[in-house]
Each structure stands twice: as C-alpha cells, then as structure tokens.
Amino acid sequence: MASRTFIRALRSNVVRQIATPVQRRTIATAFIAARATVAVAPRIPALIQKRGIKTIDFAGVKEDVYERADWPREKLLEYFKNDTLALIGYGSQGHGQGLNLRDNGLNVIIGVRKNGASWNDAIQDGWVPGTNLFGIDEAISKGTIIMNLLSDAAQSETWPAIKPQLTKGKTLYFSHGFSPVFKDLTKVEVPSDIDVILVAPKGSGRTVRTLFKNGRGINSSIAVWQDVTGKAKEKAIALAVAVGSGYMYETTFEKEVYSDLYGERGCLMGGIHGMFLAQYEVLRERGHSPSEAFNETVEEATQSLYPLIGGNGMDWMFAACSTTARRGAIDWTVKFKDTLKPVFNELYDSVKTGKETIRSLEYNSDPDYRKKYEAELEEIRNLEIWRAGKAVRSLRPENN
Ligand SMILES: NC(=O)c1ccc[n+]([C@@H]2O[C@H](COP(=O)([O-])OP(=O)(O)OC[C@H]3O[C@@H](n4cnc5c(N)ncnc54)[C@H](OP(=O)(O)O)[C@@H]3O)[C@@H](O)[C@H]2O)c1
What we know:
The chain is α/β, with parallel strands linked by helices. The protein contains 19 helices and eleven strands. α1 packs antiparallel against α2 (27-40), α12 packs across α16 and α14 packs across α19 (384-394). The two termini are 45 Å apart. The relative contact order is 0.10. The protein binds NADP nicotinamide-adenine-dinucleotide phosphate (NAP). NADP nicotinamide-adenine-dinucleotide phosphate (NAP) binds at residues 89-94, 112-113, 116-118, 149-152, 154, 157-158, 175-176, 178, 200-201, 204-205.
C-alpha cells in the first residue's frame, strides 16, 4: 500500500504540474486537470482488508465497508437458488435493479399494475406478461423475496392489500427507509415474523444500470429493520451485490431515510437548484447575457469544476483554479456556510418530524400526481436559465 508521505508527495507534484500553468480557470484546462487527477493521483484512505470487507478510516472514524468481491456470480446463484425475487414497481429503481438481477441470472419477476406506464415500460425492456411480468398480487404470491420498489406514496396506499400476503418465510426488501420509519404516517407496520431489509443505491436507477453495464457498481446503503432468521444482514449484502452495488455501507433504516430526504432536498437537488437560480438571476438583473450567466453558473460548474471535486476533493479543485479565484472562493465560503446552515437545520427538522413525509404522501398519492409533476417539470424546463442551457449544450462537439 502506498504510504501517506508518498501519496502527499505524488499529489503535490501533480498539483504543481497542473496548477502552475493553469493561471486562469478555463473549462478546457480544468477538464484536463480533472482527467489527470483520475489517471495519476487517487487518494487512498488508510484501510485494513479482509476478504469481502474493508475497514476504512473515514476522517478518523473507522467503518466497515462490504465489497462485491466476496459475492461472485456463482455464489449469488447458489445463494438464491431457491428464491423468486418479486420486484414490485418498475420506476427508476425497478428498471435498474430488475435488469441487473436478470442479467445476473437470478430468478426475478416483476409485479406492476396492469397496463399502467410501468407495465408498458417493462414490456419494452423484454419482460413477458405471464412469464416474468405479473400484476402486483400475483407477483407477491409467487415471490419469496418481495422487493417493494413502488413509489413511497404507493407503498403506503397499497399496504393494506400487500401486508396479508407477506407470510412467514418471505423477506421484505425496501430501497428507502421511508415506509417503515414513518409508520405512524405511512401505516406500513411490517409483520413481526419476516426479515425486513434495505438496499438503497446512492443514485438514480438509471445510474445503477449504467454502472453495472460498465462493469462497475454503485455505492449502496444496507440496513436491517427486522432479523428473524439471523441471516438478514447477509441477505441484504447479497441482494445489494445482485442488484448491482459495488460497495455497501451499513446504516440503519432511520439514518438512511433522514439523510436521504435531507440530502435530496439540499445539496443534491433542491439546494443546488436554488443556488443556481439565485446566481443566474443576479447576473441577468445586472446586465449579463443569458449565455454568460449560464456558463458562469452551471456549465463551468458541471463540466469543469464539480468533476474536479468528485475526482479528488475541494482543495484539489481550488488548486486547479487561479489564485484570484481561489482567494475569493475561500473567503466567500464562510458567508455562504453561515447563511445556509440555519436553512439546513430547518430542513433536517422538517425531515425528522415527518413534515416532508406528509408532504410527499399527500402530493404523490393524488391520482393526478404524474400530470401535476409533469406540469412542474415543464415550468422548470421553460425557465430562461434552462432554455439558455439547452442552447449552450447544443454547441458541444458531441451534439454537432
Ligand atoms: N429514484 C431514485 O433515484 C431512488 C434512489 C434510491 C432509492 N429509491 C427508492 O426506491 C423506491 C422506488 O422509487 P423509484 O424512483 O424507482 O420509483 P417511483 O417513480 O417513485 O415509483 C414508480 C412505481 O410506483 C408505481 N405506482 C405509483 N403509484 C401506484 C399505485 N397507486 N399503485 C400501484 N403502483 C403505483 C408506478 O407504477 P405505474 O407506472 O403503474 O404508475 C411505478 O412502477 C422508493 O422507495 C424510492 O424512495 C429511489
């Protein structure tokens, strides 16, 4: 294993190579830097390795991370040889996890309401009605492991019909802690005689599928809500690998749902969109053109600087930028953090008290939820910032 000193030396050498000529941050130079980081200087955390499990020192806190190496395909096939995986729901996760399970050779069937959008999507993906595509109840009756990948609102709505079918010996699987954790609101009170486990991929179902096809695996959280057989955790790890995970991070249902609802409303989606809009609007109000405002707000972020953060961290991104950019960014970080922290605290409270759950259940249980949500997406699509973005993207070489 490379020593920390060596890694530091290697890293600072690469920083010098990249930072010195890059006196101005431009999309092109920063992009080259991003590629160099991936090729030359991965940061390797301290780790102790056993087969199939790594103990990683995450900034001073040691955590076990499970890896797929311990679950080759033959072992998965043997482990699940007597199981029928009934995957209920075929949205983003159903699609990604279902296709990966099928490609892994496992006995998986899909259960969705007949003739809905998902039913048709499943047929498009090669699932065959009556063979491996069924109505929800029929799929559950055939399954030994019931993978509930309905929308969170639908999990609550369908629970009175689903619960009596979860008989002793079956396993119940979720990809979000939402339904059992907020059981007072969702009414999802699981039967006491079955294993209840969670595998929550940390990304969209589309990414679950793409990474699997590229031979990589997505990071997933795993957790156990109820262990009746003594095998619940092992089953969760095996299923995580089977649906296409590379590394599995152990958590609890509660921590998974709190962090997930918080994160997607914050930096992952809502917060970042709010920040983009605020910056763009100020630039436009102060006389900048749409292309300039978009390039300086979104394009450079997503195409140049965020990949640098993803590749090797925030300091790495700062180091790849000009001294002028760096100075201002470091100074203004404090103001943004102090201004935003109370908002993040308010958000966490809103998640933990169930306010966000109520909102989600109410909105997404509306029979017209797809129509209403499509109207909202249309509104976003039509914002000037995103129309400008479409024009900027049209100039990319791959679109010409
Ligand atoms: N998407 C992600 O990035 C992501 C990431 C990690 C975890 N998760 C979790 O994974 C689970 C599934 O999420 P998802 O995003 O894949 O799916 P989703 O879009 O939230 O849900 C879609 C599925 O729910 C079905 N559905 C909706 N209302 C229904 C009802 N009243 N009765 C029966 N079926 C109904 C839809 O069927 P129809 O087409 O027939 O309406 C569709 O198959 C959730 O627990 C979610 O929190 C999602």
